[in-house]
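Quick question, first post here. What does this chain look like in 3D?
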Amino acid sequence: MALARSCSGSLGSLMQQRSASGSLSAAPVPRLTRRTSGASPPPSPLSRSTSCAAATPDGHPALSSPPSSLGDPFAAAGRRLQLLLSRVGDGEDEMLNTLVEQESPESRLQTSVVLGGAVTLGAVVIASLLSVDPWGGAAPSLATLGAAAVGAAAAVPLVAARMWTWSPAAAEAVPALKDVHDGQLEMHRPWLASMSRPQALGMMALEVLPLTVLMFPAGQAAIVAGMAMYGQ
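> Answer (accepted):
Ran it through. Tokens below.
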């Protein structure tokens, strides 16, 4: 009991001394909180976006715009896609086109001569069997020259319109013409590749003239004979 009384008395005397001397002393500040408020922490790699966002004075991120010389990237991608789709086809057709394109222009002209001769011979045989003039009445005479002149005069506007469709002005006025021209070039490219202008004109003549003889005199006679047989 005496020990408890002595302890309580010493504790009371200490409290009286503390209250007389003033407030309690502040606890020691931890070492981590002793940094001054002006020191900033080292930048983090994850804070690059904020630095990019603060690049402009209005607070918006500065995005680099593509140069105008490259044009619209979506239009360029569409053209590449159309080109790839135009080249996709049957394997046999692609193999045949590759074989034709690998031949020399002279060899392709010889092939056109053979095919044109076969078509012309077939038209002559059909017209002869049906008792029809295979040349449609064409002969070295003034009437033939007059008919040729009339046909040439009628073809001048058509040729001019055809040439206009291949001009840059027509491509700007009608954008769909570009797709049509690309399809035509892709179709005739194996036969007209590496050809000069005279060779290309000869190729066109060998394709147009035999088909004209086949379609007009022989074709007309075959249609008339077929209708007569059907009527009987």
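The chain has a mean pLDDT of 74.
The longest helix spans residues 197-231.
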